[in-house]
Design a protein that fits this description.
It is a single chain. With 315 residues, the chain is of the alpha/beta class. The chain has two domains: 115 residues, 3-Layer(aba) Sandwich (Rossmann fold); 181 residues, Rossmann fold (3-Layer(aba) Sandwich), CATH 3.40.50.720. It has twelve helices and twelve strands. The strands form two sheets. It has a seven-stranded parallel β-sheet, sandwiched between helices. It has a five-stranded parallel β-sheet with strand order 2-1-3-4-5. Strand 9, helix 10 and strand 10 form a beta-alpha-beta unit. It starts with a strand and ends in a 9-residue tail after the last helix.
């Protein structure tokens, strides 16, 4: 059985072991693949594994022995699932491997926006504190989270984990998802009211045709001028030009983004130069602990498929 991994580097840059996968068959692991390489490298594969490298219809139809596509992530929009279904190719994903890590990243971004620890540490290293006439100084408003309202868009596993941490900070939690069980102290409001009431908005929903551009000019205009926007979910949930404009005109206080609409971003993405915008390179998922769980579940998915009992099937 031939197993091909198209882009193994981000999951395992060398600190994890591929041995359990090698034990399952003839395994070829590529650190990354462009579209032409993906097509060539996939030929003869029965098992194809990918993290973020697209698996389009052209590739699926060009690999006659293909039986299984394993997405080494939760989001599986990189795979043409309709084409896979037409070929009777099973597609699986890896849900819920990084819940705590992503929730942690939400507050890493938020605390950087409210405390500016990185900036102030840099000024101390530059000698500014040593030269200061006062015992302290700060360059940005310092914000206390206790008593503030966080609006969570998407109340699944990660949204619930964020709500739990927010509660520990003494924050009030509101959500926009109706028809779902909410925990004590969580209030459900309309999406428009969430944007208007929140001091912090955190996005935790999968990307769909209906919510692409969810955060647009109209909704940004509803936000408080002191509010922060956090996105650790999917970049296209935000109209990036509208957000850049809101930041450039002080319409909102700041944004913390771990995802963008195109990754890596082109140099002309307006958010790269927007003020009060912290951007990290899609690393919320990437703690060692999360990657270990991802690898383990990915191998369990493959073993289950080989045993005739596939799990975490998305197509």
């Amino acid at each position: 059985m031939r197993i091909v991994i198209l882009d193994g580097h981000t999951l395992n840059p060398g600190d994890l072991s591929w041995e359990p996968l090698h034990a399952l068959g003839d395994c070829q692991i590529y650190p990354r693949s462009n579209p032409a390489e993906s097509l060539d490298r996939s030929r003869g594969a029965e098992i194809l594994l990918t993290n973020k490298t697209p698996v389009p219809k052209e590739l699926i139809d060009s690999v006659p022995d293909l039986r299984y596509i394993g997405v080494m992530a939760t989001g599986y929009n990189i795979v043409d699932v309709a084409a896979a279904r037409a070929r009777n190719v099973i597609v699986t994903n890896v849900p819920a491997y990084g819940t705590s890590a992503v929730a942690q990243m939400v507050f890493a971004l938020l605390l950087e926006l409210t405390q500016r620890t990185g900036h102030h540490s840099d000024t101390v290293r530059d000698g500014r504190w040593s030269r200061s006439p006062d015992f302290c100084y700060w360059d940005f408003p310092l914000v206390n989270l206790s008593g503030k309202t966080i609006g969570i868009v998407g109340y699944g596993r990660i949204g619930q984990a964020v709500a739990k941490i927010a509660d520990a900070f003494g924050m009030k939690v509101i959500i926009s998802r109706h028809g779902t069980k909410v925990h004590a102290g969580v209030r459900t409001v309309s999406i428009d009211d969430l944007f208007a009431e929140s001091d912090v908005i955190s996005l935790h929903c999968p990307l769909t045709a209906d919510n692409r551009g969810l955060v647009n000019q109209e909704r940004l205009s509803r936000m408080k001028s002191t509010a922060f926007l956090i996105n650790t979910s999917r970049g296209p949930l935000i109209d990036e030009a509208a957000l850049a404009n809101a930041l450039n005109t002080d319409q909102i206080a700041g944004a913390g983004l771990d995802v963008l609409s195109v990754e890596p971003p082109p140099s002309d993405n307006p958010l790269l130069k927007a003020p009060n915008c912290i951007i990290t390179p899609h690393i919320a998922w990437a703690t060692r602990e999360s990657r270990e769980r991802l690898l383990q579940i990915m191998i369990e998915n493959l073993k289950a498929f080989l045993a005739g009992k596939p799990q975490n099937v998305v197509s």
